[in-house]
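Q: Hi! First time doing this. I have a protein sequence and I read that you can turn it into a structure. Is that right? Here it is:
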Amino acid sequence: MDIRQFQDLMWELFRSISHGINGTVRLIADSKGITMTQMRILVELKHRGESPVGDLALAVDSAPGNTSAMCKTLEKKGLVSRTRNPEDERIVLINLTASGKSLLGEIDQALTETFDPVLAQYSPLDYEQIITGIRKLDDIMNDLRHAFDPNQRR
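A: Yes, that's right. Below is the predicted 3D structure, encoded as structure tokens:
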């Protein structure tokens, strides 16, 4: 396989994988009354803890204004809290509420119920091979990101 064939196949697989993941996860997010991006914000908060809106925007690849609006919607639903940074009141800090954590637990349970029966069909060796390939792909994507912007961290 040459580089061009590799690139074409890689993009085709990206689209297929993204479509598959988004299709399944979107159904679950929709059933819980949130969008995919709102779910990504909640997941980021679960991993990061309290975060400024700007940091969340970078993490979910969204404009800060859009992220701020989504956080306001999530706040109205009781899933996050928004507070001003006492050291710099221009900065709005977002934190998961107990309801947000509970919703993420429900989503995790729904994902487990959906994914586990399918994943059980594969062996531990399959899992290892997939993870090895994804890690290699992550290395390639980081190299590509660095090639486009040498100031990016590796």
